[in-house]
Predict the 3D structure of the following.
Amino acid sequence: MKNILLFLLFLLTIYAIYSPLPCLYFKYIRKQRLGKDNLILSFDDGPNPDFTKEFLDLLKSKNQRAIFFLVGEKIKAYPDIVELIKKDGHEFGIHCYRHSHPAFWSIKKTKIQMQACLREFKNLGIDVKYFRPPHGWVNLAMLYYIKKFKLSLVLWNHILGDWDENLSKDKLAHDLKKAIKDGGLILLHDSNHKMISTSKAPLNTLYALKKSL
């Protein structure tokens, strides 16, 4: 019994080194640090055929650039929307091929998820600089492939929970105004993580942006 417990403890230690500890380090210790005069808007989980164009129109009207972290299977499904994002001068980041939680991704699965998303961008002739893992969850394999694929890890300074369609749009607008005033890298969503979504949460995010920019 003792040997079994020691073996389980060994496995738990290996897992902690591989995934939770890097995640905690980059989220809470080595944070993205930008001054108050620097504001970067970023959008995860798109492109979305129902909402992304509305976000692009709003950003254009405010002369505001952003980084769009796109999901590979959605890039494949909606390449015309990706082209619109490119045309408007925004930057891109990979958000893996499918938006599943990376907590238990193997080294092989991590590589496949990142490489497949990069391939979809390459098929459209787009060079990508940035990487944001789903749920902001970092593992050691990601750190290796970030370097190998010449990417930069980008997390956030402000996360507002705008994926929740039950969140009050006025509270979201209040929190977004404060985040913009504070400056830094703000995480928002022009879609949710599902391939086909009926969520109306992006409408609340659009409302908050219109009130805040």
Q: What stands out?
A: The two ends are 61 Å apart (CA to CA). Residues 2-18 form the longest helix (17 residues).
